[in-house]
Amino acid sequence: IMAFSNIGGPTTRIDVPGATGGSYAFGINFSSELTGQYTDSGSVVHGWWQDSAATITSFDPPGSLQTLPFGINDQTFIVGRFTDGTTLGERGFLFNTRKGIFITFDGPGAVFTSLNGINTQGLICGRYDDGSGLLHGLLARVVIGPVNQVPNQAPQPRSGQRGNPAINNQE
Strands 135-144 and 123-129: what pairing? Predict the structure, then answer.
């Protein structure tokens, strides 16, 4: 199985270096930059992104045993989920490709979190399992600069406020 693109012309197969067990494209932005996953010869799943010059870069959050990217926006922020072997199960991530910075995101009390899409304004949609088996949708936003929150802790909406917790993306 190979990833491919067809943007205003013939279909182009995307050969991700190191992919031996298949590659998949899951997200595209307005600059035709792509993100997806591939499986290597050791059956490990990694993330990849293709920039506007068609250069493919492999990536994994620190400690990742499996990386599943799903969305990319015009600032080339990539969102997805990964497994790192902790008791938290799968965790959400935001990857700032320009700075090489990963930010981990876990829903409140979550044993599973997945960030599934990100738009140009930095709004992120996803889902999480609160540990009781109940799935919740989530909406978060990227904030450039300091945010009043404890690092590596899921931001919480204030009492009486709906959604939109911030994910800090320090410049």
Answer: antiparallel
Q: Provide the whole-model pTM.
A: 0.81
- pLDDT tens digit sequence for 92-144: 999 999 999 999 999 988 999 999 999 999 999 999 999 898 999 999 998 87
Are the C-beta atoms of 40 and 67 separated by less than 8 Å? Answer: no
Query: Is it the case that residue 48 has pLDDT exceeding 90?
Result: yes
- Listed in order, strand segments (DSSP E) in 60-157 are 66-72, 77-83, 90-96, 101-105, 112-118, 123-129, 135-144
Using the structure block, give the residue that is written with the tokens 């949708």.
137
Cβ–Cβ under 8 Å, residues 117 and 125:
yes
Residue 38 tokens read as: 């591939």
The Cβ of residue 126 has, within 10 Å, a number of other Cβ atoms equal to 23
- Token reading at 66: 């499996």
